Amino acid sequence: MKRGLKPSEIDPCLYLKKGLAVLTYVDDCILVSTSQESIDDLIKSLEKGKEKFLLTDEGDIDKFLGIELKHNKDGSFEMTQPHLTDRIIKLLGLERDDNKWKSSANSRATPSEQIILHRDSEGAERNATWNYRTAVGMLTYLQ
């Protein structure tokens, strides 16, 4: 049964069709469409097609691969990664305690001022216990 989905040129896990997007990751997928009918038709096609996929509809999505989604009343949504952000903040020693910063992490003007992570707000050397490669690797996953 032809489904009309074409792989995206941007991401090999993303399949597109007019009004429908399917994002896959191992055995999970997200279906997004401008119409519920398109989603229902695709699900029926996957269940009743020659592949006979066993599917579980878990309803509206609120988390996927560590990304949290918040649905707004106007139909838009926000994506956040609070757990990864918290891990990075802790790794770099930038966490807060009782609404007071424990390090040189203070609010900054935009565009951002230069922040030197190996020095505190007074310019004294900090005892850096974090791994630069780990921190950069984690930052690349922030969306």
What is this structure, in a nutshell?
The chain has helices at 36-48, 82-91, 132-140, and strands at 6-7, 14-17, 20-25, 28-33, 63-64, 67-71, 77-80, 96-97, 100-101. With 143 residues, it is of the alpha+beta class.
Biggest sheet strand order reads 1-2-3-4
Main sheet: strands, sense, barrel: 4 strands, antiparallel
Return the string of H and E elements: EEEEHEEEHEEH
Mean pLDDT: 80
Low-confidence stretches: none
Helix/strand-derived category reads alpha+beta
Q: DSSP strand (E) fraction?
A: 15-25%
Number of strands: 9
Helix content: 10-25%
Shape: elongated
* Gyration radius, in Å: 22 Å
Count the helices. How many? 3
Distance from first to last alpha carbon: 36 Å
Topology, element by element:
Elements: E1 6-7, E2 14-17, E3 20-25, E4 28-33, H1 36-48, E5 63-64, E6 67-71, E7 77-80, H2 82-91, E8 96-97, E9 100-101, H3 132-140
Antiparallel strand pairs: 1-2, 2-3, 3-4, 5-6, 6-7, 8-9
Walk me through the structure:
The structure is a single chain. The model has no long low-confidence stretch (mean pLDDT 80). The protein has helices at residues 36-48, 82-91, 132-140, and strands at 6-7, 14-17, 20-25, 28-33, 63-64, 67-71, 77-80, 96-97, 100-101. The chain is 22% helix and 23% strand. It contains 3 helices and 9 strands, in the order ββββαβββαββα. The strands form 3 sheets. Strands 1-2-3-4 form a 4-stranded antiparallel sheet, with helices on one face. It is elongated, with a radius of gyration of 22 Å. It has 143 residues and is an alpha+beta fold.
